[in-house]
Design brief:
The complex is a heterodimer of chains A (544) and B (762). Chain A contains 22 helices and 4 strands. Chain A has 544 residues and is mainly α. Chain A has one domain. In chain A, the strands form 2 sheets. Chain A has a two-stranded antiparallel ribbon. In chain A, strands 3-4 form a two-stranded antiparallel sheet. In chain B, helix 6 runs antiparallel to helix 8, helix 8 packs parallel to helix 12 and helix 17 packs antiparallel against helix 18. Chain B starts with a helix and ends with a helix. The longest helix of chain B is centred in the last third of the chain and has 75 residues. Chain B has a two-stranded antiparallel ribbon with strand order 1-2. Classes of the chains: A mainly alpha (544), B mainly alpha (762). At the A-B interface, helix 6, helix 12, helix 14, helix 17 and helix 18 of A face strand 1, helix 5, helix 6 and helix 28 of B.
Chain lengths: 544, 762
């Protein structure tokens, strides 16, 4: 099941390879079918998932597979290295509450991304092959339970992203693509080192061999006492935690490692921005939850307030930077930074409310920000500019677009009734309840006001009032005597067309539904998070 | 589930249904579906009236409280806490029953009125949809049984207010006003949210009942300062929503919305939600928090009244008067005059809605003229509006025989009592500001009545250019507004706008609330909504715990007294039981005993001050009216000359104490400057470092390259060179001549001998 959902897009990519590049429509349809099939599989996984099983770790005396579900485990690479013993890498997939929500999100955003890619005209074949490779790699990251396999997917992801931005991007695309590539690679080099160190520090309790299994690594009793990352080696465990954290923090992106994001977003084509913000950023925080924290719980515990402070900086700094942007897409990019700050803040609380909130925020940010970038793409397609001041009064001429933007914007600023509110509220509830992060939470609430400020201000400048003198569109009196809007060289529908609605309406409905009734997602999270909190709590650690 | 609960949920959801139908289908429905909104609100009011009847009239029980909740979010078995759920639910008690009826009634009347006022607007259907979501959110606040759901509906009310203020969104002023309202409210909301978080972090629940039970049991883990902070922070929500100083600036601007909206949201219901919320949390407010609340209320009442006297826009005068009256309510809660404050909430809702709808009728009839300087003489043309507007004005000014007199007097009496109990001094500032504001209220309302209804029409005096501007500003939403500007066209409004005025004016008469025109405490409202006993008694927390263990929270307060009964007696279970038993027939005496001595003293002193308050406030109101007459009717004092005489004061009032300018210069400019600075910092410093590192690496790579070329490769080449040179030199020796070899051989032998002998010698 999991292998299928991971490799479906790659299979589609291989099919596309056989299709002549002139058959653009077939290429698109093959990709869409793969994405839809992935969606069906995601729904099946969601249906078949048993939320009572926590996952996270095998636990002392538990099954070596832990209570992960849909597990697939076969030996993959097995090398005998003489004195070093043997190198055992497994093809080990499985999901628990933390990853199953991300699997669903990935399937959803990938499908929306395919629809959004429909308008790509340049080298369609190459584009979709890379796109499908990217979709596979992302999915693989979320279901891999072998650190080596995770690393492989993590690195594979970089390559298509680099080309997708570097070839199909905006005017400054090469700079942005290289920046993105090098920055992430910089982080993953550390990850590689920590991974190897971990391999030599952990023994599989069943086979007695060294292992890359994340499930085994999450149980502290599996560590060799005097190994480099064993429990006695406090200093190296701190170093490993910090460099691993930086590797993931770059992806989040956490201040001060965030500057690749606005550049990448501004240059990336709309569907890639959607994927980037919707899924890729989540891999950073997912990596922290899956690898960083449970493997080094005592270091996590010691550094909670530091993570919290960085979360607060992200929230407020991101929001203030967003307030100053003139380019709508850059504003949305900074809003992503601000919203990922809530995830960090929730994680730093270290309690169930905060962590559930953080995970839920990851899901909601995926859907809401995907919507925001799609909406930015809609206006950019028509007006060929994203300067906020080049509009004004659009609500009168594009009422459906304005209505959707209003709902999406309010979802982003955390209006109750829409999903973002619940996750932000839980994050604050958690962060405030933990004495460590209480004061950080008190400062972070300022983000609520600044968030509202930049969103409402941009809404006003673009949609309310009347047309500005130097607007990027003209007004013409139509045959019916009313004023109509006219964009230069835009032949399509002025207001949202069918394809755009097909992308936006599902996201809107999900946002609304999960804002009123969050349990379908939260229900899958809670038992895993409660287990994780237990694993991370100092009481449990002292018993080890 | 209790049948009343079921009905209340139906009431709550009906307006939401109206919103959903109208937002999607209004263009396909006849009359844009306004009848759907009206019909649904009529049904909602009917059900609410039934609830009111059942709870208040039919079988009044002072401790009536039914609640129902369901698990909304289940967080499972949380480590360290145990099973944890976040619940949503509704609660009905006496206060809720009254509020439900009030909100649905005013909403219904505003719906009816709007069918006339908004007729012909291009977004007519959307307007009714927005009214629907507003009513839904407001009812949600009223019915919530926990802090979390109150916060949710609180924000939704903010959203509907945002949508309705900016209903004429083509106007920049409307777009500015809606943004300002939302942001000012959010500032208040973050305070409220932090207050909620303080309570949650201690008890892991949002439910009012559980929080109060825990507080009463003394389970609050943090220091008392945190509890005071929680109270003040929660009150910040009220400061935002009820437009209290210093966040009041949004409300006057909110008048950009359609006038019926101003009546419903920005006068009668939403702005009162803040007061309602403080009433809900009243029993957990510490004395220190209450002092803050009282002072904020008094400042607001006074400040807004001083601003109202110089405003020229008919709606702005009413807006500042709303701020001022909300200040009274907050002041009332702060001084502990709980019943009086809520009483004022209800009476104010009716007469202020009447005033706003009346001003809407005037604006409608005057073809969207809002400036009172160009009105006058409307008494003859609009008799119905004149009569109802005047009645509501009398209530607002607090003249006897009106509802406003009863409630305002009760608040002021409470304020005097409070000042006495707290030991006078600075605390007397609160009643003094209250009485002074009463005088100002009478003055500015007298001014308004005179300018609008009496004298001759001044339409022709209006400067031409402003006329054009005003006309232009309004023609976007009123297609029929292009009729000529003259009093000939002024006529009374149609029945659907008149009926609400009459009903609301009727509800401003004293008899609705109390048989005694001079004492609201004898009326049903103040008897039925008594001050609840605090759960954070400053003197002795144990007492509270004892009491609540013997009687339900709301019951604990309803304890009759005689003058001689010592407050402390009530603390014993016997006294409490006795008190409950005699509660029903003891009420007529007025005055209650409270477990908390401070509360008890304040209530006693408030009752003692009843007639003092009446005398002083009557004198002040009379003074205000006389001044209005002197200035505007007899024209003994020329207002313009006076304005010139005290120009700085006049400008200070006209420019609303310069709050907008102050905020613009500090908070707004400050945030924008900070945002710009951080954006620069981000692009130049943070990203600069990234690019700098990249550049450094690149430089290093080039350096490395040249090192490679010159040093590493140089060494390789040098080796080759050395070999080469040595070879070339050595080659010279290989001459092939025997003589050369012999000479070299001899030289070698000779050299060896020299070496050998030197070693022998030394």
């Amino acid at each position: 099941m999991l292998s299928l959902i991971v490799f479906l897009p790659i299979i589609a990519g291989l099919v596309i390879l056989a299709v002549p590049s002139s058959q653009k429509q077939i290429i698109r349809i093959v990709s869409l079918l793969a994405a839809l099939a992935q969606g069906v599989l995601a729904v099946l996984i969601w249906k078949g998932y048993n939320p009572a099983l926590p996952g996270i770790t095998a636990g002392p005396g538990g099954s070596p597979l832990g209570s992960f579900q849909f597990v697939e485990k076969v030996p993959w690479i097995s090398l005998h290295l003489g004195g070093f013993g043997s190198l055992n890498i497994e093809y080990f997939l499985g999901v628990d509450g933390i990853s199953v929500t991300m699997v669903i999100l990935t399937a959803l955003v990938s499908a929306i991304g395919v629809l959004s890619s429909w308008t790509i005209q340049k080298q369609v074949k190459g584009y979709f092959i890379l796109y499908n490779l990217l979709a596979s790699a992302m999915m693989g990251c979320f279901v891999a339970l072998d650190f080596f396999l995770f690393y492989v997917f993590w690195e594979i992801m970089l390559l298509p992203m680099y080309f997708l931005i570097g070839i199909w991007g905006g005017p400054n695309r090469e700079y942005a693509a290289i920046k993105f590539f090098l920055y992430t690679l910089f982080g993953s080099v550390f990850m590689l080192l920590v991974m190897i160190a971990l391999y030599f520090s952990v023994l599989d309790p069943v086979t007695g061999n060294h292992t890359f299994s994340l499930v085994a690594m999450a149980t502290q009793s599996n560590y060799i006492k005097d190994a480099i990352l064993g429990p006695d080696n406090v200093m190296w465990r701190y170093v490993a935690f910090i460099v691993l954290f930086i590797g993931f923090a770059i992806k989040v992106p956490m201040f001060p490692f965030h500057t690749w994001l606005p550049d990448a977003h501004v240059e990336a084509p709309t569907p890639i921005s959607v994927i980037l913000a919707g899924v890729l950023l989540k891999l950073g925080t997912y990596g922290m939850i899956r690898i960083n924290f449970p493997l080094f719980p005592e270091v996590f515990h010691a550094s909670m307030y530091v993570i919290g402070i960085f979360g607060a900086i992200n929230i407020i700094y991101g929001a203030l930077c967003a307030l100053a942007q003139q380019d709508l897409k850059k504003m949305v990019a900074y809003s992503s930074i601000s919203h990922m700050g809530y995830v960090l803040l929730g994680l730093s609380a270290g309690n169930s409310e905060g962590m559930v909130g953080a995970l839920y925020q990851m899901f909601n940010h995926g859907t809401i920000t995907a919507m925001l970038f799609l909406l930015v793409g809609v206006i950019y397609d028509r007006a060929h500019t994203r300067q906020i001041d080049k509009f004004g009064g659009l609500a009168s001429y594009m009422p459906v677009y304005a209505a959707v933007v209003t709902v999406a914007w309010f979802a982003s600023l955390g209006l109750p009734g829409l999903s973002g509110f619940i996750s932000e509220a839980l994050v604050f509830v958690g962060a405030f309840s933990s004495p460590t992060t209480r004061y950080i939470a008190m400062v972070s609430v300022l983000g609520i006001v600044f968030g509202a400020a930049y969103l409402l201000w941009s809404l006003q400048r673009m949609f309310l009032g009347t047309r500005k003198a130097d607007a990027a569109y003209d007004l013409q009196i139509g045959t019916d005597g009313h004023e109509h809007i006219h964009f230069h060289d835009w032949k399509g529908k002025i207001d949202l067309d069918g394809r755009e609605l097909a992308m936006l309406v599902p996201l809107l409905l999900i946002t609304l539904f999960l804002g009123i009734y969050p349990m379908p997602v939260l229900g899958m999270l809670t038992s895993s998070i409660n287990k994780l909190v237990q694993v991370l709590s100092p009481v449990v650690m002292s018993q080890m | 589930m209790h049948s009343l609960i079921q009905l209340s949920i139906v009431v709550l959801l009906l307006p939401l249904l109206s919103f959903v139908i109208l937002i999607f289908f209004n263009r396909r429905l006849p009359r844009r579906g306004d009848f759907i909104g009206l019909g649904i609100l009529g049904t909602a009011f009917g059900i609410s009236a039934y609830i009111f009847w059942s709870v208040i009239v039919q079988a009044y029980d002072p401790a009536f409280r039914i609640a129902w909740d369901f698990t909304w979010i289940d967080l499972g078995n949380v480590p360290g806490v145990g099973p944890l759920q976040i619940k949503m639910g509704v609660v009905i008690d006496n206060l809720t029953a009254i509020m439900l009826a009030m909100v649905t009634l005013i909403s219904l009347l505003v719906h009816l009125y709007s069918t006339g006022y908004m007729a012909g607007d291009k977004n007519y259907g959307r307007y009714f949809a927005f009214l629907g979501i507003f009513t839904f959110s407001m009812l949600g606040i009223v019915l919530s049984d926990n802090l979390f759901s109150i916060y949710i509906f609180w924000e939704l009310v903010g959203l509907s207010s945002y949508l309705l203020i900016g209903f004429f969104f083509e106007k920049d002023s409307a777009a500015d006003a809606q943004k300002k309202a939302f942001l000012a409210n959010r500032v208040g909301d973050i305070g409220m949210w932090l207050g909620i978080l303080i309570l949650y972090s201690q008890f892991h629940t949002f439910s009012f009942e559980q929080i109060y039970a825990n507080l009463a049991a003394g389970n609050f883990g943090l220091s008392n300062a945190w509890l005071t902070a929680a109270g003040i922070l929660l009150f910040m929500g009220c400061v935002g929503k009820s437009a209290q100083f210093p966040l009041h600036v949004w409300l006057p601007d909110a008048m950009e919305g359609p006038t019926p909206v101003s009546a419903l949201i920005h006068a009668a219901t939403m702005v009162a939600a803040g007061v309602y919320f403080v009433a809900r949390i009243f029993i957990m407010l510490t004395p220190d928090a209450l002092h803050v609340i009282a002072f904020i209320g008094a400042c607001t009442a006074f400040m807004a009244a001083t601003i109202a006297i110089t405003q020229n826009d008919i709606k702005r005068v009413l807006a500042y008067s709303t701020v001022s009256q909300l200040g009274y309510m907050v002041l009332g809660l702060g001084v502990g005059a709980y019943s009086a404050a809520l009483f004022h909430l209800v009476t104010h809702a009716f007469f202020k809605a009447c005033l706003f709808l009346g001003s809407g009728a005037i604006i409608h009839a005057m073809h969207h003229e809002q400036d009172m300087r160009w009105m006058g003489g409307l008494r003859k043309h609009m008799p119905w509006t004149f009569a109802t507007f005047t009645l509501a004005t009398l209530a607002l000014a607090g003249l006897p025989l009106t509802s406003g007199f009863l409630s305002k007097d009760a608040i002021l009496a409470g304020a005097i009592g409070f000042a006495k109990v707290e030991g006078g001094g600075i605390y007397y500032l609160i009643p003094v500001l209250g009485f002074f504001s009463a005088m100002l209220t009478a003055f500015y309302m007298g001014r308004q009545i005179w300018l609008v209804f009496f004298g001759d029409s001044r339409t022709h005096l209006k400067p031409a250019d402003t006329s054009h501007q005003a006309h232009h500003a309004h023609d976007t939403h009123a297609t029929h507004a292009d009729a000529h500007h003259s009093t000939h066209a002024v006529h009374e409004v149609s029945w659907n706008m008149r009926a609400p005025l009459v009903i609301l004016a009727a509800l401003s008469i004293y008899a609705v609330y109390s048989p005694d025109p001079l004492d609201g405490a004898k009326g049903w409202f103040m008897k039925m909504i008594p001050t609840p006993a605090t759960v954070v008694g400053a003197a002795n927390p144990q007492k509270g715990a004892l009491l609540t263990s013997n009687a339900p929270l709301h019951l604990a307060s309803v304890v009759p007294s005689s003058e001689t009964a010592a407050p402390a007696l009530a603390a014993t279970p016997v006294a409490a039981e006795h008190a409950v038993a005699t509660a029903e027939h003891g009420e007529a005496k007025g005055g209650h005993i409270y477990s908390d001595p401070r509360q008890a003293e304040i209530v006693h002193a408030g009752h003692a001050a009843h007639f003092t308050a009446i005398y002083i406030s009557s004198i002040m109101v009379a003074l205000g009216i006389i001044m209005a007459f002197v200035v505007y009717v007899f024209k003994i004092i020329d207002p313009e000359k006076t304005a010139r005489l005290i120009r700085p004061l006049y400008l200070f009032s006209l420019n609303k104490w310069y709050w907008d300018e102050i905020y613009d210069a500090t908070v707004i400019k400050g945030s924008m400057a900070l945002a710009k600075m951080l954006s620069w910092f981000d692009a130049k410093v943070v990203d600069g470092m990234v690019n700098g590192v990249a550049l450094l690496v690149k430089k290093f790579a080039f350096l490395n390259d040249s090192f490679d070329k010159h040093v590493v490769d140089g060494m390789v080449n040098f080796t080759a060179f050395t070999v080469n040179t040595t070879g070339a030199v050595l080659r010279k020796l290989q001459t092939g001549k025997v003589q050369t070899y012999v000479v070299m051989l001899l030289l070698a032998v000779f050299g060896y001998f020299i070496f050998y002998f030197t070693r022998l010698i030394y």
